[in-house]
Amino acid sequence: MKLLITGGAGFIGSAVVRHVIRNTDWSVANVDKLTYAGNLESLAEAGTSNRHRHYKVDIRDRPALREVFREARPDAVLHLAAESHVDRSIDGPALFIETNVGGTYVLLDTAFDYWRELDDEARARFRFQHISTDEVFGSLGPTGRFSETTPYQPNSPYSASKAASDHLVRAWHHTYGLPTLTTNCSNNYGPYHFPEKLIPLCIIRALRGERLPVYGKGENVRDWLHVEDHAEALTLVLQKGRPGATYNVGGDSERRNIDVVRAICTVLDDLLPNSRNRPHESLIEFVTDRPGHDARYAIDASKIGNELGWRPRHSFEQGLRDTVRWYLDNRGWWERVLNGAYRGERLGLRA
C-alpha cells in the first residue's frame, strides 16, 4: 500500500510513520510543512528508509498538493496535519481556522479530484482517513463517556476548528461519495511529544528543577492513550474500517491532571534517587485555570473493539514510566526542540 500522510513529522503522525515503516511493507509520502511542532528527528529509522519520502508542503497549497498526489499515487490518505494546542488556539485562533478548516477542505477537494480519476479497482480501494479529537464533543460531567453518536459541542477555538473539519469529511463522503473514515481520539502521550503539552512539559520542567504549573485545582479529567497504541488503531481502521464510519479511540485510562503530574513526580523520584529536586512533587504550583477549560473527557472505545478487535496494549502506569524514561534518555532531542520557537512559557492567556 502507498500512503500519503499529512502531518507525518508531528507527534502522532511520526508515530504512525514509524509504525508503518517498522511493521509493514507500505510506502509513505509524508506531507509536513514543518511548523514549530514538526520535527524530522521524530521519524527515527523511518527518516532514512527508502519507503519514506518527506514533502515540505502546506496542506493549504493546492498546486503543491496536486503534485504530491501525482508523484506518490497513494492508495490512501491519513490526514493528521493540524494545529493542535488549545492554549495556542486561545491566543491566536486564526491559524487554527486557516489550517484545520481551510487546509482540510483543500486536502479533501484535491483528494477527491485524484480519486475520481482512478480506475474502478483503485477507486474502490482508496480511503481518506481523518484523524480528529474527542474535544469536539465538549465537556462531560462526572459520569458517562463519549460515543460515536455523541452530539458535537466544541468549547475552544481548537476543538471548534476540528469539529468543522470532521463535518467537512462527512460531507465529502455523503455528497460526493469519497470513501472516508474518521477517528476521534483521547489525549495522547509517549515519546517525541512536543513539550507544550502536559506530560512532556512537566517531565522536562521537573528535570530542570522548575515549577510544575497545574491549572486550577488539577481536577480536570482526561482519558490517556499511548501514541503507539493509537498508531496501531489508525492502521487497523484504515484496513478494516467501514467507509463513512467513525471510530472513537481511547486508552481507558481516566486520570485527573493533578494525579498525572504527581505520578510523573513519583516516577522521577524512583528513577533519579540522587536528584536534588526530590521529592519532585514539591515543584507543583497551582496556577490560574485556562479559559473555558473542559471538566472531563472520556472515550467509549467499544465500537472499535467490537468491530475491529482493537485494544490498547499499554497500561497508563507502565506507559508513563516508559515515557519518562524516554525523556531521560533523549535529552538531546528535547533540548534541541526547546532551542527553537518554544521555551516552555505559559500560553493561552489572551482571554
CATH architecture of the domain at 2-187 and 226-252 and 293-314: 3-Layer(aba) Sandwich
Instruction: Give helix % range.
Output: 40-55%
Q: Count the strands?
A: 12
Morphology: globular
Helical/strand content category: alpha/beta
| Proportion of residues in extended strands | 15-25%
What summary fits the major beta sheet?
A: 7 strands, parallel
Average of pLDDT: 95
- Tally the helices: 12
Low-confidence stretches: 342-346
Q: Provide the spatial order of strands within the biggest beta sheet.
A: 3-2-1-4-5-6-10
Question: What do we call the CATH topology of the domain at 2-187 and 226-252 and 293-314?
Answer: Rossmann fold
Mind telling me the CATH class of the domain at 2-187 and 226-252 and 293-314? Alpha Beta
> C-alpha Rg, in Å?
20 Å
Helix and strand run: EHEEHEHHHEHEEHEEHEEHEHHH
For this entry, what is the oligomeric state of its chains? single chain
End-to-end Cα distance, whole Å, is: 46 Å
At the fourth CATH level, what is the homologous superfamily of the domain at 2-187 and 226-252 and 293-314? Answer: NAD(P)-binding Rossmann-like Domain
